[in-house]
């Protein structure tokens, strides 16, 4: 556990020291009592626009319990970013579908899908689909669907 505390502290320091104009996300696994699943700490540096002028970088830290019920990608995305129907579009993109395929899969028009995507960009602080998918896969790697098996070493 002491090693995990050092890893968490190092992750905070690394995010604070990196270029604030570039989004940064780090995930750390934290062990709990033997009868409890581990915590998954997800640290995400917020955009410079959210910081106090001249102040230190701001970070959001999400703690997720393995029993939280976020067993699918869409639920994890919805919980992390307070998304509505946009979470389904985001999950489809994270699973490798393009906008047209996501629209067909969800039974909505491609224009509606693009509108949802624009809202997701605003809520996540991303600007491009690739950046969004990268962020989602980093943030949901412990809990969501096919990415569930990837964990950080102890």
Walk me through what this model shows.
The chain has 154 residues and is an alpha+beta fold. The protein has a single domain (2-147), classed as Winged helix-like DNA-binding domain superfamily/Winged helix DNA-binding domain (Arc Repressor Mutant, subunit A). 44% of the residues lie in helices and 14% in strands. The chain is built from 6 helices and 3 strands; from the N terminus they run H-E-E-E-H-H-H-H-H. Helix 3 (86-94) crosses helix 6. The N and C termini lie close together (9 Å). Residues 143-154 have low confidence and may be disordered.
Report the strand count.
3
Mean pLDDT: 75
The total domain count is 1
Structural class, by secondary structure, is alpha+beta
Residue share in β-strands: 5-15%
CATH class: Mainly Alpha
What's the name of the CATH homologous superfamily? Winged helix-like DNA-binding domain superfamily/Winged helix DNA-binding domain
What is the general shape? globular
Task: Give the % helix.
Answer: 40-55%
Continuous helix count: 6
Rounded Rg: 16 Å
- The first-to-last residue Cα distance is 9 Å
The main sheet comes to: 3 strands, antiparallel
